[in-house]
Design brief:
The chain is mainly α and 155 residues long. It has seven helices and no strands. It folds into two domains: 3-111, Cytochrome Bc1 Complex, Chain C; 114-155, no CATH class. Helix 1 packs antiparallel against helix 3, helix 3 (50-79) packs antiparallel against helix 4 and helix 5 packs antiparallel against helix 6. The relative contact order is 0.12.
Length: 155
């Protein structure tokens, strides 16, 4: 089996998973209210409708599957030296996709805007703050200020 074909297949699978996640996210976005006063209640409304509750759960777990699949794709790309071959563009795009997936995963935890979401935001922005040189700046950008607040959700 050709390693390049496997790597290309993994990238295609990630693209399909991404498309499914985008469609599910768009459907859920019509029922979600992204402001701090209404976010929790809008998630509760979504959960009260069985079809949307199923879609929300599917969307949640599919995001975890994408992170795992993206990690495996990068691992396979490293092992097969995809970054050296003619598939350099695919390698760069897969790395960018992984970064995008992780950022979406991090921001997705905020959406219910409950105690768990706020605690997660505090931990995640604290980790970002510990990065050398740019930590303070990136944590302020992620928080929308110096602390986790209503502005964090809107960002």
């Amino acid at each position: 089996m050709n390693a390049r074909r496997v790597f290309n297949g993994l990238i295609i699978a990630l693209a399909i998973e991404s498309l499914i996640e985008i469609i599910a996210g768009i459907v859920l976005a019509f029922k979600y209210s992204p402001n701090a006063n209404d976010a929790y209640q809008s998630v509760k409304r979504i959960q009260s409708i069985p079809a949307l509750n199923f879609l929300r759960g599917f969307h949640h777990w599919m995001s975890a599957v994408i992170i795992i699949a993206a990690g495996l794709t990068l691992l396979f790309g490293l092992v097969s030296a995809a970054y050296k071959q003619s598939s350099k563009k695919l390698w760069v795009s897969s790395v960018l996709l992984v970064v995008m997936y992780v950022l979406f995963q991090l921001t997705g935890h905020l959406l219910p805007w409950d105690q768990h979401a706020v605690r997660t935001a505090v931990v995640e922005t604290g980790i970002a703050q510990s990065a050398p040189a740019i930590g303070g700046m990136q944590s302020n950008v992620l928080r929308g200020g110096t602390t986790v607040s209503n502005q964090t959700l809107t960002i």
